[in-house]
Amino acid sequence: MVDDYAGYKALFAAGHTELACLAHIRPTFFDVHAVSGSPLAEQALRRIAELYAIGQQASGSDGR
Q1: Measured between alpha carbons, how far is 8 from 38 in angstroms, rounded to an integer?
Q2: What is the pLDDT of residue 40?
Q3: Which of 26, 49, 51, 57 has its C-alpha lying 20 to 30 A from 40's C-alpha?
Q4: Residue 64 binned pLDDT confidence (cut-offs 50, 70, 90)
Q5: At residue 24, what are phi and psi to the nearest 5 degrees?
Q6: Which residue in 22, 20, 43 sits closest to 33, CA to CA?
Q7: pTM
Q8: Does residue 16 belong to any structural domain of this protein?
Q9: Is residue 33 one of the residues assigned to a domain?
Q10: How many independent structural domains does the chain possess?
């Protein structure tokens, strides 16, 4: 899992699998849902929110 640094692109071209961070992909789902009302984007946003809640619970954080 890496950020979008261009230097990593050669690794992906060589066959390594790129994983995206939820914090970076969430805005895309938000934009798609806002424009089209896509049920798939809505489901993705709901699942991401659930994962964030689990992460906050596991870390003992209440999100404040």
Answers
A1: 31
A2: 97
A3: 57
A4: low
A5: -90, -30
A6: 43
A7: 0.65
A8: no
A9: yes
A10: 1
pLDDT in tens, 6-59: 788 888 888 888 777 788 889 999 999 999 999 999 999 999 999 999 989 998
Tokens of 34: 């806002």
For residue 42, tell me if it sits in a domain: yes
Report which residue type is found at 40: L
Structure-block tokens of residue 28: 């895309």
In this predicted structure, what is the pLDDT of residue 47?
96
Give the 3-state DSSP-derived string for the chain, with helices as H, strands as E and coil as C.
Answer: CCCCCHHHHHHHHCCCCCCCCHHHHHHHHHHHHHHHCCHHHHHHHHHHHHHHHHHHHHHCCCCC
